[in-house]
Amino acid sequence: MVVMSLAEPDQISKTKTLYEVGAWEIFWRNFLAGASRTIGGLVIYLAVLYVLSNIFIAYVWPVIQPVFQQMGETTDLLKQLQGMPTVR
Predict the structure, then answer these.
(1) 39 inside domain
(2) Which residues contact 11 (CB under 8 A, 6 or more apart)?
(3) Which of 14, 52, 17, 12 is nearest to 33 (CA)?
(4) Does a structural domain hold residue 7?
(5) In a domain, 8, yes or no
(6) Is 85 helix (H, G, I), strand (E, B) or coil?
(7) How far apart are CA 74 and CA 88, in angstroms?
């Protein structure tokens, strides 16, 4: 069983407490903690994006690709019709 005294939460290292270190050491430790959390979040975000894009390409894109192909053909046909002379 571990017994914590009141001074232990304030320990920065084995020999220094929170009140014995400078502001820059506290800033630096908090900066590193924030930077590592941000980098970890980015890695998780990129991994989720990779998985979702692979699912989209494998399952959704084959279903909607014919629709986009038909839209392209229709657009080309309309461009050709737009250039034809009209009868008045």
Answers:
(1) yes
(2) 17, 18
(3) 12
(4) no
(5) no
(6) coil
(7) 25
